[in-house]
Structure formats: C-alpha cells, structure tokens
Amino acid sequence: MIGHGAPMAPWTVTHAATPPSLDHADAWALHGLELASRRCERALWGHEDHTYRAASALGRLLDRSFAEHHYLVATPPEGVGDPGAVDGFAAMMMPRGDNAHLAWLDVWVRPERRREGLGRRLLGEVEAIARADGRTTFLLATAHAREAPTHDADALVPPTGAGRIRASDAAARFALRAGYRLEQGERLSILRIPVRPEVLDPLHAGALTAAGDAYRPVAWVGDTPDEMVDDVALLLTHAGSDAPTAGLDLREDRWTAERVRQHELQARTAGRRIRIVGALHEASGRLVGLTTVSTNEAVPEAVEQGYTIVLAEHRGHRLGMLVKAEMLRLLGDDAPLARRLRTSNAEENAHMLAINVALGFRPHGVHGMWQKVAR
Asked: Are 74 and 87 in contact (CB under 8 A)?
C-alpha cells in the first residue's frame, strides 16, 4: 500500500489484458505487476514471500466463475508494453453471487515513485470500475510492518478496540484522505518452521487426548477426495461467516463443491500446492473442522496459512490445535524446504491467536481493513 502524494505526474494506466498464456505479448502487464510487487514486498518486509504472482493473476482473470478480477498497471507513457517500467498497480476483486455489493481493492506503488499522486490515480481508476459495476461498498487493504504500541498517541484503533495502526504511516494517511474508515486490524504473524519437537509434540499429544475417540485427523495434498468435498464447502462457508468481521459489511459467502473444485484448479494453474488437514467426527463420518495452507513453487520456503475453522457444535475439544499441529507435521514431510509460515488473524479473535502463540507464531505486522460506502 502507498501514501498520498503531490500533484499527479503523467502516467499511462493500462487495464491488464487476459492473455492465453504468460508467454503471450499481452502478458507484459502481469509480468510488470509481479516485478513491481517484488520491490514493494522487499521494501516493506525484507522478503518477497507474498508477491502478487503473474501466474496467479492470470488464473484469476481466466476463471470468472465466482469472482471478477481486475489488474491495472501504471507506466510512463513511453513504458507501455515494458514490464520493467511498471511503477505501480491496483488489484480489485468483485464477488459474483454473494456479497455482490462489495469490491476488494489493493493499491501498491514502487517505493521510489511514492508521494507523486500515483496511488491516488490508481485508486480512483478501480473505484470507478467498481461504481460502474454497481458496487456500493469498497474494502481497502493496507499492510504495516509493525503495530503501534499501546501508549502511542498517534495510533488509530478500530471500533473493535484491537489492532493499532499509526496514523502517520503512509498507507494510513492514504486511506484516510481517500475517505476510508479503519474497521479492523489483523495481526500478521510468522512461525519459523520446522517447529522444535519439544514444542510441537506436547501440543499435538494434548490435542489428541482432548479429541479422544470421537475425532481423528485426516490429511491430503492437492484435490479434496470426492467424499469430503461437500463437507469442505460447508466448512469454508463457515470460515467466512464465523470469523470476526468488525464493522465490515461482509455477508455470508457460500461455497459449493463446484467452487472448491474451481479453487483447486486455479491453484494448480498458478503453481500453488494446497494442503488440508481435517478433523473427522467418527460417529457421523463428517468433517467438522479443517485448516488449509498453500505453497508456491516459486518460493518453496514460504507457506501461506489459509482457513482454519471448527463447527460451533464441535468446539471445546481442542480440534483447532489438533488440525494445526497435524499440519505442521505434514509440512515437515511434504514441504522439506519450508521455513516460514505466515498467518493473519483479527486481533479480537483471542481463541485462534492463543493457539498460534502456543505454537510459536510471533507478530510480524498489521493488516488494516478499511471501508468506504460509495456515494
């Protein structure tokens, strides 16, 4: 994310095409987006683990079954067609079906081109596309390398009272000046892996004991077994509706078996490997909890946490800890090069944060979620 700047310099903003492959000439904007994202990620975090990847962007553009994605890149006028000339980009996702009132927005500008008005230009462009599509609520994401301390008078605190962001951060100033309100702060955390056995083994054993004979962990890599795909769809629906959403105007986001399969196909196309550990209820034969992670073949040392959810009626048996501890064991076998696992949790989600802290996750920054109602 980037800050508000001076009067706008001349840029050409190009709406990324949907090329048939990344080898096609029209894929230049997607390659440029990845190059610019690498520079931004390196400047903010010191690594490129969570870069916008050209392959992932192409997969999302090609598959419009459940969401419509747009990517805009900005270059000097003479730089159109040159991936290395991309100074900034905007990404937008508009859900189809559920939450059709929303547009999710993300804007990034290369560090050396900030405070020149480019972020403002890009944000205006994607907001205009969203308005034209009838979207009435915009959600803007910002990333911050550290959380403001509790005594910081400059801190912005969401209405939940948890997750502090410095008002002086460039990204915060940018969002505020664009008319957005901070609704939620998520803690970004990193776990160094593999986790030492003296830490992981007692937590895993304790969770197995709490689960007893009523539940057992099951795991797979890649596509979900046919007999479990409906359960996974139900759990992913709950993962969205059960998580704390503060004042964000988020409504139920239903998953179906078809959507799960499309998600898996998109991951394969983008070179991502998905792993799932579930909690199986023996009496019913149904999955009642799960956790998901993924890796990108381009960055095998980095792991991204996806969803973790346990159905409400099955909570109290330490199933959240069980599936996460089991996942760490699976990663040890299936991802031997993995060294870092990143997750984000709403600061008010005390239960999940406690599980992560016990496993060894340490704070790595704050993810701000900002909202604006279109007029």
From this structure: yes
Out of 21-35, 117-131, 275-289, 349-363, least confident range: 349-363
Contact 232, 225 (CB under 8 A): no
Show Cβ contacts of residue 161 under 8 Å, excluding neighbours closer than 6 positions.
348
Pair 160, 56 in one domain: yes
Task: Catalogue the E-assigned strands of the chain.
Answer: 12-15, 67-75, 88-95, 102-109, 137-144, 155-156, 165-166, 181-192, 215-221, 272-281, 286-296, 299-310, 340-346, 362-373
Kindly report, residue by residue over 46-98, the tens digit of the pLDDT. Answer: 988 889 999 999 999 998 889 999 999 999 999 999 999 999 999 999 999 89
Beta strand pairing status for 67-75 and 88-95?
antiparallel
123 pLDDT above the threshold of 50? yes
Regarding whether 162 and 203 lie in a shared domain, the answer is no
The answer on pLDDT for 239 being more than 50 is: yes
- If you average pLDDT over residues 2-23, what whole number do you get? 79
Tokens 């048939």: give the residue.
20
Given 186, 215, 230, the domain boundary residue is: 186
Domain boundary among 167, 186, 205: 186
160/242 same-domain check: no
The domain containing residue 47 runs over which residues?
12-186
Asked if residue 9 has pLDDT above 80, the reply is no
Residue 152, token pair as written in the block: 């910081």
Is 369 contained in some domain? no
Instruction: For residue 287, list its beta bridge partners.
Output: 280
Could you give the number of structural domains in the chain?
Answer: 2
| 207 and 119 co-located in one domain | no
Amino acid (one-letter) located at 200? L
CA distance 127 to 125: 6
For residues 287 and 245, membership in a common domain is answered with yes
Angle at which helices 319-334 and 197-211 pack, to 10 degrees?
130
Domain match, 136 and 252 both: no
Task: Report residue 327: phi and psi, to 5°.
Answer: -60, -40
Q: Per-residue pLDDT tens for 208-226? A: 999 999 999 999 999 999 9
- Which pLDDT does position 153 carry in this prediction? 80
Looking at the structure, tell me whether residues 130 and 229 fall in a common domain: no
